[in-house]
Amino acid sequence: MSATGIPVDVDVLRSEIRKTYTDVSTDQQQEFIFPTGRAWAQGLGYPEPELSRVPDATGAELRRRCQPLAARTGGAGLGVARSGLGAETDLLIAAQMTGPAGRVIGVDMTASMLERAAASARAMGLANVELHESLIEALPIASGSVDVVISNGVIDLVPDKDAVLDEVDRVLRPGGRLQLADVVIHEEVSADARARIDLWTG
Asked: What pTM was computed for the model?
């Protein structure tokens, strides 16, 4: 779906998304319309022992649609890009899977998510993590430079989905892959629902 003709103001939408995910990263007691928490991640089958090494604060705020790491990252030494950090658990697990010879890039438009990801990576001794504040419709990553792109519950938040997928295609090396988990809607969404910012941000 292109951003053209969407029934919400994109700048307002981005502002509300930043607010929501700042809350996710800073207020672990708050309830959200999406599931959070380490127990949720375990139930989805997140890989061990990598999940157990993720700091408790990160695991507690984990917001996931499902588990996109079932295919793993493909092995040590790969370049992996994570678009939209959520609570950065996917990023931290991918960094462990790729090992010190690999590189994992996290991109998010929410400063608090990036700060938490950086702190968690430091606490875990992960030196192969690179973080950028940016929209995922304009990834600050060189063309053809990564082997895997992970996106988990992020593309549903973006009005211009074509732009996101074009960027994924641009940054992937030939033969690279997208590991995607997201919301799928099987019925037409009403005009009233499409105009509700709160439904876009969840």
From this structure: 0.76
